[in-house]
Amino acid sequence: MEREFDFIVVGGGSAGCALAARLSGDPAVSVLLIEAGPDASPWQVRMPLAVDSLLTSTTYNWAFESEVEEGLGGRVMAHPRGRVIGGSSAINGMVYTRGNPQDYDEWRDDHGCAGWGYADVLPYFMRMECAKSGDDRYRGRSGPLRVTRPKPTNPLNAAFLNAGREIGYPISEDSNGPQHEGFSVAEQTIVDGQRNSSAAAFLNPSVRARSNLKISAKTLVEKIVFEGRRAVGVKCQTANGPKVFKSRREIVLSAGGVGSPHILKLSGVGPADELQSHGIAVVHDAKGVGANLQDHLDLPIQYTCKQPVSLKRSTEWPRKAFVGINWFLFKGGVAASNQFEVSAYIRTRAGISKPNLKFEFFPLSISHSNFKPYPQEAFQIHCTVETSYARGSLRLRSADPSVAPLLQFNYLSDERDMQTFREGIALVRELVASRSFDPFRGAEIEPGEAVRSKEALDEWIRHRATTAFHISGTCAMGRSDDPNAVIDSELRVRGVEGLRVADASIMPVVVTSNLNASAMMIGERAADLCLGRAQLSPSNEPYWINPNWQTMQR
């Protein structure tokens, strides 16, 4: 492989695949995409219901761990992140959700991220997607990313949607359109029964055939090479030994919420005292690198089911064998869906203008003790705090690039997050107590009917909450006078030249949703910035905010 390129993209994940594809669409530039993991798409990646095996894999997964989290009862949290072409989009839950429009307006207005308001990012979401449903003013029809809307057939899914309507919540016909808030069918990055990762969507065979795009998989980046303050190359360990790839124009880090700040610090861009303590020469003292670490926490509330309509039998022999055969032969059946087919974004109290909680319904219950399905018919509703106030940090453990950094999230260190969880549990109980669930509702497994007091709920929350896999914020975008803002609104790393960041690490505040869609959008936007193209014309379409949000919870 040649050693010099116009653009080098570090990280072949959600943002990196979109970015490399869009950059190489200009035949006048050469692009190198570097990925630490393999360039592979085994059946476990392609089968939607095989996601559990990927979350425990070390072949396609960095398998990071947090430090001890006092807010979680002293537990250490596992943090799977994709280590394969496609990144975390190759091992995630395949939920396609953009976030709330207010998220992006807050980036622009509260954090000084010019060009990142909802009107600015909507055209990029539309450019990248090929959706078959929704309003043409909000949804793309011809992009590389095919987005599908499932047709839920399980009666438990219908009960969930009907229960939401019954107790007074709005129904959104398209949560990725003008109305994010409410109960809705959940869109997926699943096409013809197979996962549609960013690699499958953006790096399709015709894109891979471009002579100006090279992909270097199984390549560990050791550091960015600087000449003075200008980034000029990337030092790597490849399958064929050490190499330095040179960049004629720019290097873009798209290695994710862990990888991008880690590489910056290894390269001498980060808090000077931390770098010097590991013997790393300081190129630029940037205190914000690795700060502002954010994630979403999740709780599954579980119930037994009075009718045999859950997925329990599909997890047992002999039906389990037929589920696999159906998928391998026809790409159909239970395994052709992530089974997260209905969800809700809601506000847990009056006085907040956008949802702070997500419900995701799953027609099966998994034991917390051994991660296996319960032996009885059961279902669970995932309760995810979407506006987390906890902030953590990523710090170097070693100057060795093969050693994972320290991740301290400080989960549940802010009382507002605990309050949202308490409110969420009460709302789940109200939902399941509705008439719509009467035919199915059995006993409450977790937390259990006896867990009612504030003290008992808090204890249960601290010992059951787990990550929703949404690491972000560690190379935050923001104003020039913000000492913790690592990059500017054009994604350029402040204090150096020739270096940008484009992935979920740039989020000043994590969006109110899963991150895959927004990360791909960031890659789309970054390509235009790198190539000096004019921004797509803003789309000033209105979006829905509950008119009574100041005084009413629903």
Automatic annotation (TrEMBL):
Pfam families: GMC_oxred_C, GMC_oxred_N. One of its GO terms (molecular function) is flavin adenine dinucleotide binding. FAD binds at residues 84, 92-95, 221. Its cofactor is FAD. Residues 82-105 form the Glucose-methanol-choline oxidoreductase N-terminal domain. Keywords: FAD, Flavoprotein, Oxidoreductase. Its EC number is 1.1.99.1. It comes from the Bacteria. Belongs to the GMC oxidoreductase family. NCBIfam families: PRK02106.1. This is Choline dehydrogenase. It comes from Ensifer adhaerens (Sinorhizobium morelense).
